[in-house]
Amino acid sequence: MEKGWEQIVACLAILMSGAAYLPLDVDAPNDRLSTLIQEADVKIILTQSHCQPIFTHLTIISVDTFTDDIYPVPFPIKQQLATDLAYVIYTSGSTGKPKGVMISHQAVINTILDMNSRLHISTND
């Protein structure tokens, strides 16, 4: 999925469902994407219709053309624990092999609080 508002909404929806997300670069080579998807045991890919990946063994949802007509009942928001996985980010790795780093909800909150403190962001902004 390309960077933008749809990516943010998709990440929030994934988190609200109780799942974790794995951001992938749409411009990355298919073999790299395949490796990351396999290692992270990805089941569903959220993307845009103009950047469809070629992974036929996965469920692909294009967020820009998706309708919720087949889901008459809203999904319940799943309560998360601070220690639950929020997302996985792959680093380049010192060996050249990408390494997945698991980020918990508490780590995300700590990062946001730190950024707010450094930038003097408050509820008044």
From TrEMBL:
InterPro entries on file: AMP-binding, AMP-binding_CS, AMP-dep_synth/lig_dom, ANL_N_sf
Keywords: Ligase, Signal
Keyword Manganese carried by entry: no
Pfam family membership, one: AMP-binding
Source organism of this protein record: Rotaria sordida
Superkingdom assignment: Eukaryota
Signal sequence annotation: 1-20
GO cellular component: cytoplasm
Ranges for domain AMP-dependent synthetase/ligase: 1-116
Listed GO biological process terms: amino acid activation for nonribosomal peptide biosynthetic process; secondary metabolite biosynthetic process
SUPFAM superfamilies with a match to the protein in the record: Acetyl-CoA synthetase-like
GO molecular function, one term: phosphopantetheine binding
Protein name: AMP-dependent synthetase/ligase domain-containing protein
